[in-house]
Specification:
By secondary structure, the chain is mainly α. It is built from 8 helices and 4 strands. The chain is about 45% helix and about 5% strand.
Length: about 210
């Protein structure tokens, strides 16, 4: 039975730091050094002006570990579908749900900026990044056989690269991405938009969706 319920968001209080692979080793070293300094500072005499805290990379790297860009996130979501195609609405809503419920996930370059649009949260950067992936040979964007829109899917090379990105995330985070992806792909356009509006009513203020209550 297909569930209309959106997968439960991650507990925002639960750390989703990831220290897998050599790429994130320097961040683990930074975290350990910061912890040691913090403990030692408790025993230092309170003399002179307080030193400015070193928060370099704290917010952006501890949340994920390895840097994740907008294109990386989209590729990870496409790869989690193992070649299945996303409709434009499914891709938009999947990226929205993940970035909304995993703050700090995109920590390299600009993030997404979803705004209420005709059918809920929308950011044109989703399509722009998908085009970048297509040009790199990691995604396919082809006309849909069911209507006047295109579909988005990972190529074999994209699946392999996307799985690498997923494997670089903490287990709970990667699992959440897979769950949201699978849920969105199981929804019709109507049920997808309704579910988003039910959980995020602020995203229907500019809606033209006829089934959406005022």
């Amino acid at each position: 039975m297909i569930s209309r319920r959106i997968p439960r968001p991650l507990d925002k209080a639960f750390p989703i730091c990831s220290f897998k692979g050599a790429a994130s080793l320097k961040w683990r070293n930074w975290a350990l050094t910061t912890l040691v300094r913090s403990v030692l500072s408790m025993w230092e005499p309170r003399v002179g002006p307080a030193r400015k805290k070193d928060t370099t990379h704290a917010a952006s790297t501890c949340s994920i570990g390895s840097p994740v860009s907008r294109a990386d996130l989209i590729l990870a979501l496409l790869a989690s579908a193992s070649g299945r195609s996303y409709s434009p609405a499914q891709l938009q809503k999947t990226v929205f749900l993940v970035t909304r419920n995993v703050p700090g996930l995109v920590n390299e370059g600009p993030g997404f900026d979803f705004q209420p649009y005709d059918y809920g949260p929308f950011d044109k950067a989703v399509y722009q990044e998908a085009e970048v992936l297509k040009q790199a040979g990691n995604a396919e964007i082809v006309p849909s056989p069911w209507g006047r829109w295109v579909t988005y899917a990972a190529t074999q090379a994209g699946i392999e690269r996307g799985e690498q990105i997923l494997n670089g995330l903490r287990g709970e985070t990667a699992q959440y991405l897979r769950q949201v992806s699978a849920w969105a792909l199981s929804q019709s356009f109507s049920s997808l938009v309704k579910a988003i509006y039910d959980m995020y009513p602020e995203m229907k203020v500019n809606s033209i969706f006829k089934d959406a209550p005022a």
